[in-house]
Amino acid sequence: MRLLTPGSKLQRTWSDFIDALYAPVGQDFNALYWLYRLSSALLDTILPCRDDLRRIRINGFACRLRPLIPCAGITLTLLCVISYFTTFRDTAVIKKGKSETLHTSIVVWLAFNVLSHYLYCIYKSPGIVISPKSEMTANINASVAKRNDAVIKIGGCCFIQSRVNINNEKKRCNFYEHYCTTNVKIDESTQNAVHHPMPNDTFCHKCEINRNARSHHCRVCKVCVLEYDHHCPWINGCIGYNNYRNFVLLIFYIMLGCWYGACLLALDFYAMMREYFQDNGFKIMGPQYGTGILDLPPPWTLLKDYRNTGKIDDDVILRAVFPFLLFVSICMFVFLLDHLLSIAKGFTTLEKKTRPDRNDVVNPFDLGIRKNFERVFGKSLINIIIPFPTHKKW
Ligand SMILES: [Zn+2]
Ligand SMILES: [Zn+2]
Fold first, then answer.
1. Domain that residue 55 falls in
2. Which among 241, 260, 277 is the end of a domain?
3. Which ligand neighbours the alpha carbon of 224 most closely?
4. What is the pLDDT of residues 199-238, one digit of tens each?
């Protein structure tokens, strides 16, 4: 770990603390003050926060928490997979006489897809329009870095930020410019209609640049993003032209995984709850822990039981996992449907929200349903089933 490297904030705070601790008797030593200074220096080191965001106090707090949200998403996915291998493989597959190889392969394939698309979304650039401002910070970083290519650090999960290479972003913007000039033409018959989104470049007052058509400024990331869809807290970054495909596939695979798990566990859950209600009667607050219909034990009880017995009760895992899978699968189904409808019409989520409420709105980027889908997902089905980065576009 490079926590205490010479000159780092933590190292400076630590040496100030040592000086204060061994100061001559009679000088004030405020333990609470030092606890605050040391912990905030430690937080700054392990969860880096951009200086411009830190100045605003509430944002400063939020920007430290932001990198933890994708971490929570990945942990939840891993917990579901672990619960399959520790519990449900035995109770819902082997004991029921189902094929263990088949079900384990499906679980591994689904989990692999979810995790890869999750990581792609976090660490792949959404497609950034580079401004002189961001180029300047990148050059400062490049002089420090060993490799000499200019990189901007943005978003990311925990303390590993994603690195965006400036040259690649510029190439992508040029490609996009070329794509717009060759493919997007305004029909003479629709010349008088309202065009949404507009096919021409716009000016961003915050970045002070002329940006490509369909780009939008993200207030959280503080950059302009090509075909900006939305800023996703679960990804801790923007969803745009370059990672939208991974985002939709991520939602699709989470939905598929949750439906699969819910179907596998539905009968067991039903049988368990029926028996439970027969024994205890129907109560809104369960008789054992009083935490609601499911009567789940609080985390500390769970931890105590685990330390005493070395395992967690199978029924408790089933009662926690099945409703979670069902809830997530329904949410993901709604999100997926919304995104598929947007793709079919050739809009991004933002463009759909800001569409003028008129009948004569024409989308110059709409290529027809089939081509709109091909533009997002590519033509090959194999790239959708296996998450390898073969579908590359600039
Ligand atoms: Zn901007
Ligand atoms: Zn953003």
1. 37-65
2. 241
3. 1
4. 889 999 998 999 999 999 998 888 999 999 999 999 999 9
